[in-house]
Structures are given as structure tokens and as C-alpha cells.
TrEMBL record:
UniProt superkingdom: Eukaryota
Domain Disease resistance protein Roq1-like winged-helix span(s) in chain numbering: 214-286
NB-ARC domain ranges (all copies): 1-146
InterPro entries xref list: Apaf_helical (IPR042197), Disease_R_plants (IPR044974), LRR_dom_sf (IPR032675), NB-ARC (IPR002182), P-loop_NTPase (IPR027417), WH_DNA-bd_sf (IPR036390), WHD_ROQ1-like (IPR058192)
Native source organism of the sequence: Glycine soja (Wild soybean)
GO process terms (BP): defense response
PANTHER family in UniProt: LEUCINE-RICH REPEAT-CONTAINING PROTEIN, RESISTANCE PROTEIN (TIR-NBS-LRR CLASS), PUTATIVE-RELATED
Name by which UniProt lists this protein: TMV resistance protein N isoform A
Cleaved signal peptide residues: none
GO MF, any single term: ADP binding
Keywords assigned: Leucine-rich repeat, Repeat
Lineage: Eukaryota, Viridiplantae, Streptophyta, Embryophyta, Tracheophyta
Length: 813
């Protein structure tokens, strides 16, 4: 923005580095120079003269560009081009930058960031407002000739700093104006600034406004500075588009020129002096007769216009705000002459009379604290884009359905008396319906299913609202559904799968007893927060993990054990391949290879591991089955299964051969599992279906192999059963779950996914479980390492026992 210190900064840099350059030029105030006759040719001459130290005759811009390229292309240059406002100026003085010699530095200052588009600049620096302490020091140097204000002026100086908002130009100008003045004169000057801005500062800031391309961009700026500061950029864009201002392209222009800015949460902001400049432009159009200005916002003047009925057809926007307990009432006939009124913002105001006096050109009707029980039928709203009636006294929105084809946004939030929504059948283009915190709202009209363009439905904290009508689930265009705090909603229908555009579902603090598993089939879903669980698109909750583990069994009854866990981060790794048909509940997601569950605490982790392991055994085994089955099988029925992770076939072949040879000579599962005396691997043994190990500190793992010894029936083999592998990292409080309907197979990609969640020193336990008919007797893990590396602290049995003793036994095993 103007006055932010661009030129001063460029001069400071130039003064620091210019001695390092033989050839240099500082061309100041290019915008003003180009307004004069043959301005660009004069600038080209100045550049050549500065660098070549001689006068060069030029008669056209094209000839000048050619001379500059030919004469300067191989030189190492330092050039400052100050206050550029047209792309043609850059082209005339430095072409496309490709002919600039190596080691050259070109500094460009401009108010329009868009000028750099297509120009291969190395760095763009946006000037920021000065901090309060810096501002106070700059003001003090100009006002008092020292770094701090005099003691009697300290508070006054800080008030001036607050008014200037960190703008160096304003601080310098006011500092000079207030030099050697008394405290009373300082107070008087501050008071005057409230109604009469500093003319020099205004003149500098207004340059950016005057440089806008057309009247539509100027209208957008003036609308924003009077009515839309702090409003969402998408909301404002929608309204101003409805006014025919093409704000989709206009607002970015204003942002590029630093006239407006986008702040936190996509809210529009503006420097207070720029806002003051915009309002002053409007005042200047009719200083003594506010009713003849295009926009009215100052309460005293608006009250005067409405009381004296002096409004005219010039008025396009009006804002009047009072505190909640005020009882200000005006006659509707005061609006009769304002037939071009398109923006109306009222707060805690009452209007008496015929609402037909209000303009038919209204595009934005924002009336917080709307006093009536329903909107009068003769209120002209056929062209309204957005209706905002927050904190209204509405019982019904209107008595009969209204045909509002232009309406896109309806916000009735915090309307404490509203009992039911309107009939939506004639609001065919409504895109956003916001009914947040309507505590008596108990009915959503079934016609909501007719809103084919609805993208947002917000019913947060509607505590009296029961379950939604089934027609809601027909809304294929809805992207965001918010039901948090609707404490009577206990069910979401499986029909939610029809909401094919749904990306965000937020339903915190509801009492939903049934999780609709069809959520998993929603390809568009990106974020879910439901029953205190939350996560991103492919992040689903533990109940859905269970449904993945056993798609044929409804895991609703298993939701309860997870209620003690406050949050998860659940990631599903999808691989589309030809391994077979996908479970119906996974729709088109492809083959689900793995799930990563990240818990907050170790206690959560232990409970979740216990639940999952118990679940697997509940589904596939009973204690009686296991005891009876094992007693009928001889030791000679021992078999083994080797699961390789990574692509180190040589190691797997060695392991497989050793296990096979051991099995041939001994029926003890201890005898034929190779130990860690082989240079290829480190081994850890575990009883039953789990094995525990600590990730080695001084060993680079290249892969992993799991060996499972199990009792089996000759009719069944491990290659034909369902296999689960749970890798529990107690250090990181995470679980990685793998499932395969046939032979489990890991490749290099899988190994990279596993190793990315393991670090030296991590405490890890692996569970391996087969499907029905298998009893796991022993599990071993072989950590494959690079040959030639030291074996590390886990190669000796003594060190191994020491590592085990440092970590407590977990009941979940």
C-alpha cells in the first residue's frame, strides 16, 4: 500500500550495495514520470545515461528497448525501478530480464503485485506494517527528535501510533505536524482526525484507488470498506457477484494492490487508514447532504436521513447499528426514494409501516435482531442473494412459501424462538442454510430434499431437533453437514450414502447409537467428526476397523469397548490390484491392505489392542474349541509359515531351508527355528501368537521375516486362511493392522510403510493370527540387516535379556 516504505527500503538497499557495481541506475517515481509527454522515452534515456555515462538519443520506445538490450546485455548492473504501475514500463526498461548480465541486481517497487506475473523475479517481498514499538520510535524521532516520547506525551503518542496503524508515511507526517506543539494541541489534532483525515496521507493512499481499472472495481472497494470488513471472502464474493460487480476477478485485483487483504479464516480486512480513505471519497461526493451519497454507514448521519426522510435514489448501501437494548424505530416510508438500495444492514432496529417501500433492488438483507414473528409478505426480496437474520424474534420465517429464485444464503442462527424451518420448495437455488443455535427448532421441513444446489447445512446446537427427515439424505450436492450439539439426534441413516458430494461431516456431542457404515463408501468424504472421534477422509473409527476386519459380521455391538478412547488417527492404505473382489461395504476403494491407528496415550493403545485381539478370537475361536482341537493333534502336526517383508529373497531362502531341515529331524518347534548366529539376521522368539522386540540402535534393517509355528488340520493350510498381522509400537502408541484373505505378501512399498513407523529404540510387539482351525504355538521375527555392519546391542543374549527387563509386561499379550 502507499506510504509503507517501499521507496525508502529500496534506497537503503541501494546505498548499502551500490559500491559493488560499476554500472548502476536509480530511476525514481516512474508512475508520475510516465504521465508526462514522452515519459517512457525519457526514462530509457536516463537509464542509458546513468550506465554508459554518456548521452544517447532515442526517438521511440521500441528503439530505446533495442538500444538498452544491445548496450547493457553483458553488463553487471544494479538498477532500481521505483513505483512501477504498468507492465509496459518494465518491458521498456528491462525487457523480459533475459538479457540482463550475470550478477546483476534489479529492484522493483510497485503497489500492484500482479505486475510480477509472468516476470521471472527471484523474490517478492510484501511490505508489512511496523510494530507498535517501532512505530513509537519513528513518531518520536519526527515529533521530539529523540527515540522516545517526552513523559507528558507518552499516552498521546501511543494514541497517534494506534491511529496510524504502523504506516510509516502517516507516522512521519503526523510527527512533523505535531513537532513543538502542546499536549492540548495534540488532543485537538487527534479529535480532528476522527472526522477530517490527514490530507497528505489520504492523497498518497488514494493513488491506489485512482489506479483501479474500472468503476466496478472501485464499487467493490467502497462496498467492502463500508459493509464487509470481517466478512468471509466467499460470502462477500457471492453477494457482490449478485450485484453485477464481477467480484470473482475484482477482489483479487484489490488484494494485489493492497487495498484489501484476506486475514485469518478467510475474513476480509483493510488497513484502517485505507478504509478511512475510501469513506472520505464517499463523503466528498456530497459533504453537507448525506442523503445524496452512495453509501451511508455513520449512525448520526443515517438517523438524520431516516428521520428527515432525505434519502435519494443515489443511495446504494445503508448500515445502521445499535446496542441490543435500544428501541430505535423508523418509518418504512423513509426508504421510499432509495430505489437503488442493494445493501441493507440493520442491527437492533425496528421499522414501522409498509415493507413495500423497501427497494426491489436489494441483494443483501442483513438484519440482526429482526423484531417480527415472521417476515412480512410484502417485503420485496425476489432479488436478494443473502438473508442474514441472526438473533431474530422469528417464530416462523414466513407464513406462506416464498418464491425467492435468487436466494443462495439463508442464515437464521441464534433465533431462540424459531420452532420450524420454512417450506423450501420455492428456494430452488439455495446453497447455504445456517440454523446454528436455534434451541427451540424441532422440525426440519421435508421439502429440504428439494434443495438440489445446497452445499452447506449447519444445524449446530439445535438441542430440540430430533432425527432428520429422510429427505435430507437425498441432498446430493451437500458438501458440509454439521450436527454437533444436536443432543436428540441418535441416528444417522444408511441413506447417507446418497449424499455423494459430502466431504465434511461434523457431529460432536450427539447421541448417535448406530454408525452408518455406508460412510465408508462415500468417495468424497474428507473429514469426519462423529461421537467424539474425528479424522480425515480415509480416517474412520474403530467400529469401521472392525467392519473391515470382518465385513460379513455387523460390528455395531463392538462399538462400546472403544468409547473409553477419546481420539484416533486412522489411516487406510488402499491398493487397487487383481487380488479378488472387494468387500461390499468398501465400495470402489479397492483392496484394503492396511490400517494405521494412532492413539493419544499408551492406555488407549493397550485397550485397543486388547479389544482387537479379543475380537478376532471371539469371531474365530472359543477356549473350548482351542483346548479340544489341540488335544486331538499330535506334535507331528506342527507346521510353519514364513512371511517375508521386503525383497531379500536370499535371506528368505536361507531361512526357509533351515526351517525345513529342522522340521525334518525334530518335531519340536524350538529346534527348527534358526537362531541369530547367522550374519544375515537378528532373531527374537515369542510364545504363542506374539513376539516382542526392541528396534536395534546400531543396525540398519533392510527387511523383516515372520515365522509362525502352528498346529493345523491336514485339510487346511496357512495359504488358504485369513491372516491378520498386528504391529504394535508401544513407544509411538500406534498399531498397524494387515489383513489378507489368502497368502499375505509384502513388497518393498509395504516395507517402506513399516519402517517409516519404526525408529531405533522403539518397543514393538507383533501379533500374527490365522483364521478358524489353527492354533499358533510360537512366533519369531527375523530382523534382516545389511552385511558388514556391526551387529549392535541386540546380538548377544545377555543384552537381549537386559532390553526385555527394561520394558514391563503388557496384559494385552
Amino acid at each position: 500500500m502507499g506510504g509503507s516504505g517501499k521507496t525508502t527500503t529500496a534506497k537503503a538497499i541501494y546505498n548499502q550495495i551500490h559500491r559493488s557495481f560499476m554500472d548502476k541506475s536509480f530511476i525514481e517515481d516512474i508512475r508520475e514520470a510516465c504521465k508526462r509527454d514522452r515519459g517512457q522515452i525519457r526514462l530509457q534515456k536516463q537509464l542509458l545515461s546513468d550506465v554508459l555515462k554518456t548521452k544517447v538519443e532515442i526517438h521511440s520506445i521500441g528503439r530505446g528497448t533495442t538500444v538498452i538490450e544491445n548496450r547493457l546485455s553483458k553488463k553487471r548492473l544494479l538498477i532500481v525501478l521505483d513505483d512501477v504501475n504498468k507492465s509496459g514500463q518494465l518491458k521498456a526498461l528491462c525487457g523480459n530480464l533475459q538479457w540482463i548480465g550475470e550478477g546483476s541486481v534489479i529492484i522493483i517497487t510497485t503497489r500492484d503485485k500482479h505486475l510480477f506475473t509472468g516476470l521471472k523475479v527471484d523474490y517478492v517481498h510484501e511490505m508489512k506494517e511496523m510494530h507498535a514499538n517501532e512505530s513509537l520510535e519513528l513518531l518520536s524521532w519526527h515529533a521530539f527528535r529523540e527515540a522516545k516520547p517526552k513523559e507528558d506525551f507518552n499516552e498521546l503518542a501511543r494514541n497517534v501510533v494506534a491511529y496510524c496503524g504502523g504506516l510509516p508515511l502517516a507516522l512521519e507526517d503526523l510527527g512533523l505536524y505535531l513537532t513543538n506543539r502542546t499536549t492540548n494541541e495534540w488532543r485537538s489534532a487527534l479529535s480532528k482526525l476522527e472526522t477530517t483525515p490527514n490530507p497528505h496521507v489520504q492523497e498518497i493512499l488514494k493513488i491506489s484507488f485512482d489506479g483501479l481499472n474500472d468503476e466496478k472495481e472501485k464499487d467493490i472497494f467502497l462496498d467492502v470498506c463500508c459493509f464487509f470488513i470481517g466478512k468471509d471472502i466467499a460470502y462477500v464474493t457471492e453477494i457482490l457477484n449478485g450485484c453485477g460487480l464481477h467480484s470473482d476477478c475484482g477482489i483479487p485485483v484489490l488484494i494485489d494492490r493492497s487495498l484489501i487483504k484476506v486475514e485469518k479464516n478467510n475474513k476480509l480486512g483493510m488497513h484502517n487508514l485505507v478504509q478511512e480513505m475510501g469513506k472520505e471519497i464517499i463523503r466528498q461526493s456530497s459533504r453537507k447532504k448525506p442523503g445524496k451519497r452512495s453509501r451511508l454507514w455513520f449512525n448520526v448521519e443515517v438517523v438524520d436521513v431516516l428521520t428527515k426522510n432525505t434519502g435519494t435514489e443515489v443511495v446504494e448501501g445503508l448500515a445502521l447499528k445499535f446496542h441490543v437494548n435500544s428501541r430505535n424505530c423508523f418509518k418504512t416510508c423513509a426508504f421510499e426514494k432509495m430505489q437503488r438500495l442493494r445493501l441493507l444492514q440493520l442491527e437492533n432496529i425496528q421499522l414501522a409501516g409498509d415493507y413495500g417501500y423497501l427497494s426491489k433492488e436489494l441483494r443483501w438483507m442483513c438484519w440482526q435482531g429482526f423484531p417480527s414473528k415472521y417476515i412480512p409478505k410484502n417485503f420485496n426480496m425476489e432479488n436478494v442473494i443473502a438473508i442474514d437474520l441472526k438473533r431474530s424474534n422469528l417464530r416462523l420465517v414466513w407464513k406462506e412459501p416464498q418464491d425467492l429464485a435468487s436466494l443462495k444464503i439463508l442464515n437464521l442462527s441464534h433465533s431462540k424462538y424459531l420452532t420450524e424451518t420454512p417450506d423450501f420448495s420455492k428456494l430452488r437455488n439455495l446453497e447455504k442454510l445456517i440454523l446454528k443455535d436455534c434451541p427451540r427448532l424441532c422440525k426440519v421441513h421435508k421439502s429440504i430434499g428439494d434443495l438440489r444446489n445446497l452445499i452447506l447445512l449447519n444445524l449446530k446446537d439445535c438441542t430440540s431437533l430430533g432425527n432428520l427427515p429422510r429427505s435430507v439424505y437425498k441432498l446430493k450436492s451437500v458438501k458440509t453437514l454439521i450436527l454437533s450439539g444436536c443432543s436428540k439426534i441418535d441416528k444417522l441413516e444408511e441413506d447417507i450414502v446418497q449424499m455423494e458430494s459430502l466431504t465434511t461431516l461434523i457431529a460432536k456431542n450427539v447421541v448417535v447409537k448406530e454408525v452408518p457404515f455406508s460412510i465408508v463408501t462415500l468417495k468424497s468424504i474428507e473429514y469426519i467428526s462423529l461421537c467424539e472421534y474425528e479424522g480425515l477422509s480415509h480416517n474412520v473409527f474403530p467400529s469401521i476397523i472392525l467392519s473391515w476386519m470382518s465385513p460379513t459380521i455387523n460390528p455395531l455391538s463392538y462399538i462400546h469397548p472403544f468409547c473409553c478412547i477419546s481420539s484416533f488417527l486412522v489411516s487406510m492404505h488402499i491398493q487397487n490390484n487383481a487380488f479378488g473382489d472387494v468387500a461390499p461395504m468398501l465400495g470402489g476403494l479397492g483392496i484394503l491392505r492396511s490400517v494405521l491407528v494412532q492413539c493419544d496415550t499408551e492406555l488407549q493403545l493397550l485397550k485397543l489392542v486388547r479389544t482387537i485381539v479379543d475380537y478376532i478370537y471371539d469371531v474365530y475361536f472359543t477356549d473350548l474349541e482351542i483346548t479340544s482341537y489341540a488335544s486331538r493333534i499330535s506334535k507331528h502336526s506342527l507346521s510353519s509359515w514364513l512371511i517375508g517383508i521386503g525383497s531379500y529373497q536370499e535371506v528368505f531362502q536361507i531361512l526357509s531351508k533351515s526351517i525345513h531341515e529342522g522340521l525334518a529331524i525334530n518335531d519340536s518347534c524350538d529346534a527348527f527355528l534358526p537362531g541369530d548366529n547367522d550374519p544375515h539376521w537378528l532373531v527374537r522368539m515369542g510364545e504363542g501368537n506374539s513376539v516382542y522386540f526392541t528396534v536395534p540402535e546400531n543396525c540398519r534393517m533392510k527387511g523383516m521375516a515372520l515365522c509362525v509355528v502352528y498346529l493345523t488340520n491336514p485339510k487346511n493350510t496357512a495359504a488358504e486362511c485369513l491372516i491378520y498381522v498386528l504391529m504394535v509400537n508401544y513407544t509411538k502408541c500406534s498399531i498397524k493392522i494387515y489383513k489378507q484373505d489368502t497368502v499375505i505378501s509384502f513388497n518393498d512399498v509395504d516395507w517402506q510403510g513399516i519402517i517409516s513407523h519404526l525408529e531405533p529404540g522403539d518397543k514393538v510387539k507383533i501379533f500374527v493370527t490365522f483364521g478358524h482351525g489353527f492354533v499358533v504355538k510360537k512366533t519369531a521375527v527375523y530382523l534382516i540387516r545389511t552385511l558388514g555392519e556391526p551387529s549392535g546391542p541386540l546380538t548377544s543374549s545377555k543384552r537381549t535379556l537386559k532390553c526385555w527387563s527394561h520394558y514391563p509386561h503388557h496384559s494385552c499379550s
